[in-house]
TrEMBL record:
Designated name of the protein: TetR/AcrR family transcriptional regulator
Entry superkingdom: Bacteria
Pfam families reported in the protein's UniProt record: TetR_C_33, TetR_N
Residues making up the signal peptide according to the UniProt record: none
Domain HTH tetR-type: 1-60
Amino acid sequence: MTRDTILTAARAVLDREGVPGLTVRKVAARAKLSPMAMYRHFADKSALLDALMDDGLATWGKIVSSISAEDPMAWLEELIEAYLNFALTKPHRFDAAFMLPAPSARQFPDDFAVGRSPVMAMVILRIDQAKSNGWFGNKPALDVALSLAALAQGLVSMHRANRFSSEAQFKTIYRTALRHCIESYSV
């Protein structure tokens, strides 16, 4: 069995049962090997969580890389919609990218400032482009990007905790709040 086989099994368990159902035993059973055999490829559960986080972030990175808008503000609008779609249509992969307690998770601000996050680097680039067009004033692009990411993730977390009366209400509030956040930086 290879590392890829184990990671494929871990993705399947994650997609079926979410983060709470992700155990080494379940992944091993899905991969048709003993839990001890997994440790030849992943030192421990933390290493498996890191690999799943990286896989979720790679999925998110592919989605963001496919955004085609040329105008930086249109690109940011598409990004906001893509994030919403990712959270709603691939919830367990979204969780792997953004919610797993992975030991090697990127840390603010240093990892983002040095470009360790390819997606955040793309977002910062678009914010800097928008700044040259008169948006966002002299606000640091990393601060704007973090505000947008935190607000989006917070609203998704609230939706997951059933804090909205419906998915339609959540989507409306999500879009409105993020638009207001962008507009607030342009004052």
